[in-house]
Amino acid sequence: MCKKFFLIDGHAQIFQSYYAIPQLSSPSGAPVNAVYGFTSALRKLIKNQNPDYLAVAFDVKGPTFRHKCFEEYKSNRKPMPEDLAPQIQNIERVVKAYNIPIFVCEGYEADDVIGTIVKKVADESVETAMVSRDKDLEQLMNEKVKMFNTQTNAFYDVEKLAVKRGIKPSQMTDLLALVGDRSDNVPGVPGIGDKTALKLVKEWGSVECALDNADKITARKVKENLKQYADQARLSKFLVTINTEVPIDFSLEACRVNGVNEQEVYNLFQEFGFTSFLR
Fold first, then answer.
1. At what angle do helices 110-120 and 10-20 cross, to 10 degrees?
2. What SS3 class is residue 59?
3. Is the pTM of this model over 0.90?
4. Distance CA 29, CA 272 (A)
5. Residues 69-128: pLDDT tens digits?
6. HEC per residue, 94-140
7. Whose CA is closest to 242, among 91, 57, 44, 109?
């Protein structure tokens, strides 16, 4: 029987927690709503899913290798809310108190770190669940790799993707390359929305094949845009494709769940005023 490995998309979970919970302050007056939400989700995950292994991947400040190819990548992102920024360090303190390893790498995003870890454990006897709702991570799914939503306590897998979109996980990069991604400022191909992109991917299999066969496409505007924005489509696919060769020092054994540092967790909960957790 395969053991269970839950790999948390740190910043995705942080933002989800921040916006899900109203303003909350510690006894000292510091904002802790994101800390509370993240900790609550982590506690429920451990209790309900009983993972054998746990790890968290975080983004790091600064440009990534994608910015070298496209300076405007994520340039439309709003700055992190002022009351969220100071909570990041406290969330990391909670993760460390739970004896969960944190993985980061300068120049890469958490998605790339997650992709690299997924690849590294491919031959291990584990079933991996990526704790995130980020559609970019769907490209990493396979029979042993799923996604997990802490809000719904539900898994999303290859079969559900096939039912929802009718494509394979590897084709998510093609879909995203055509549609683009406003949140990350990935340009995509103008005039091509989700339905048209999905039709093209199903018919031609990939962005590259669709571009090579643009003359065979009957919809005039789609044909014209594919020809005009071919380089932009290829760039977009590069931007949305997760790098699985991030130089990180990873050991699955280091991710084994071995209990928490009870005194440190207790001290943190007192500091943050999490009385329900203390009880």
1. 130
2. coil
3. yes
4. 9
5. 999 999 888 889 999 999 999 999 999 999 999 999 999 999 999 999 999 999 999 999
6. HHHHCCCCEECCCCCCHHHHHHHHHHHCCCCCEEEEEECCCHHHHHH
7. 109
